[in-house]
Amino acid sequence: WAKYFFFSFRYFVIKNSYLKNAGWSNSNNQQGLEIDTPNSIIINNTIEEIYRLFLNTTANNTLINSNSIKAKSLGLAGGAARAIFIRSSNNTISSNSIVGGSNAVYGIYLDSYSSYNNISFNTINISAAAITSYGIYLDSQSINNEIISNTLDIWNYTQYGIMIIGNNTKINSNKINLHPVPTASRGIILGSLVDV
Asked: How confident is the model at residue 94 (pLDDT cuts 50, 70, 90)?
């Protein structure tokens, strides 16, 4: 498994590329495609078996658009695979196809202190076996984010379409399909102030 880590004071661009088997744990420099530079552009790529596409704290104003992203199917100590993991602000995550692995996984995870991110027009498919998973998850203290016009397909066991713990989130025109509808699964879970 490979690791890819980019740090710069300018920007990072990847377009029309193929990336596979990146990352294996929560530790720094081991998470997969780690971006630690602002104003980056990730467009029209195929990214497979990735542990995380990680926007670290300084990766603000990044565009992730029109990519096909598949998270790893793994059960490693050190945390669940997250196809896109955001710890920065003012990013646009749009028109991506995201597929979760068969173990505990998050499609898009906004960490604490991520703010003013736009999550829109993405297609997210989560199918975990006997493990709780989330299509989109907003952690505590993630504020003023928008979740608009995404389509989520959630399969089997305990699955949640959108889980919001952060504050002042705008949710509009999302479609969440549960297949089937287990009693423990929910389309949207609200744990904070949300503008629907």
From this structure: very high
Q: What is the DSSP letter of 57?
A: T
The string of pLDDT tens digits covering residues 133-170 is: 788 999 988 999 999 999 998 876 667 889 998 889 99
Q: Which residue has the higher pLDDT, 194 or 186?
A: 186
> Is the peptide bond between 182 and the residue preceding it cis, with omega within 30 degrees of 0?
no
Q: CA-to-CA distance for 102 and 183, rounded, in angstroms?
A: 20
Q: Torsion over CA of 32, 36, 38 and 39, rounded to 10 degrees?
A: -20
Please check whether residue 166 is in contact with residue 195, taking contact to mean a CB–CB distance below 8 angstroms: no
Which residues in 87-115 are b (16+ Cβ under 10 Å) and which e? bbbebebbbbebbbbbbbbbbbbbbeebb
Q: How many other β-carbons are positioned within 10 Å of the β-carbon of residue 156?
A: 18
Torsion sign across C-alpha atoms 58, 87, 75, 96: negative
Map tokens 């503008």 to a residue: 195
pLDDT digits (tens, 9 = 90+) for 39-60: 999 999 998 877 778 898 889 9
**Angstrom distance (rounded) from CA 26 to CA 40:** 22
Burial label for 130, CB within 10 Å (0-12, 13-18, 19+), is: exposed
Model-level pTM?
A: 0.86
